[in-house]
Amino acid sequence: MATAPPPFRSDRLSTKSRGGSVDFAPGRKMAVNPQYPLLETFYDDGHRGKILEERTQILRPLRPRTHNPLVWDDRYTEFIRRSGFLPLARLVQGRLPMMDGAALTALVDRWRPETHSFHLPAGEMTVTLEDVAMILGLPIDGRAVTGNISPAGWRDRVGLLLGVRPPDPPEGTKDRKTTGVSFGWISQHFGHPPPPGAADGVIQRHARAWLWHLVGGFLFPDGSGNTLSWMWLDILSQQWEVVAAYSWGSATLAWLYRQMCEACRRTGDSSSLGGCCYLLQVWMWERIPVGRPDRGPPGDWGFNDEGSLPTVAFLWKNILNVYGNPMRRYIDYSNELDCLLDSHVTWTPYRRDEIDEMELSPVCTEHSELWRANLPLICFFLVEYHLPCRVMRQFGYLQACPVEHVSTSQELHNIDRRSQRGSKNWEQ
């Protein structure tokens, strides 16, 4: 494990810039860090933590990419329940808490792609399948969220599914929207529920648009955060019960891992953090007292229909949002993380009385036998390793040391949609 960088002092940093994100050049040979054999110099190149250590650039907080869901209508309930997303849908129906970009950035600065964990003075920590299940209430077992990715005719597929076809680009101009629709377009056409007395087919189309927006804008946003990808449509257009058969929880974690692997090497002033930032934010609040807001009692759950039970995230419903200068808070959070001791960390937050007294959604613990499994997480073209063997204290076990090292593979990190254009059957 790497030692923590020196305290982050803005008055001791130079203003020399090293540019934006680093090119992940395929075929580049891995070299072990001469000081910390666990780490790879390939990832040190441009890593935010390395820049903080060397004090070669003033880094600014990343911008978390997350979108509040579309307006909810109770007529969607039956369809969203059949899709397996009702626990999460109930959780996010109201407005989401403000994402604390300064705190999340200070944490991501300490993320290492080699181990898929945060390297902190208290030890390694990471987001696991347990956290996904307990916080979001998403299934972590089932079919892999993958399949064929073909951009051809994606506007026609949107039209068939939702009844509204996105417009073609003006004749003679280059199509700049090849990855999906803008969030403004989906809000314009489906930002309001269907009218009273609408036919069942119309309600279902609005429910699928609501789910598409939740999946693409809340669970799987990328670093740009401006486009709702058509990539999810082939799965979301299936029968509602088939949609529920996919392992959405493991895919969400794979996507978050990849986004953090990229964000920890983004150094531009306007760089962003993709992935489910809400999951990362609640994970941080539950375990680390850095940037943790005050919270009041969550109140009554308020839903009595089948399948509507809360997750751990419901406990953070009523919080006092943190305000103030983001740069100042970023510096403070970084210094606090550098002083974090193991006694400051809540290693097993889900074993407290407050949670034992809750009636949690059954999805939270349905596949608990997978929480400590070392396995690959799949999300279309992404394969990211889940390595709970590195963070056994998060499960109440003694951490073995040294841990058997499993490389997360530069080759796998090189695979993305930019480098693999065209139609790809990723399931095959």
From TrEMBL:
User: Which InterPro entries does this entry report, sorted A to Z?
Assistant: AminoTfrase-like_pln_mobile, MAIN-like
Chain ranges of the Aminotransferase-like plant mobile domain: 99-423
Q: Spell out the residue ranges making up region: Disordered.
A: 1-26
Annotated signal sequence is none
A Pfam family this chain is assigned to: PMD
Q: What is this protein's record name?
A: Aminotransferase-like plant mobile domain-containing protein
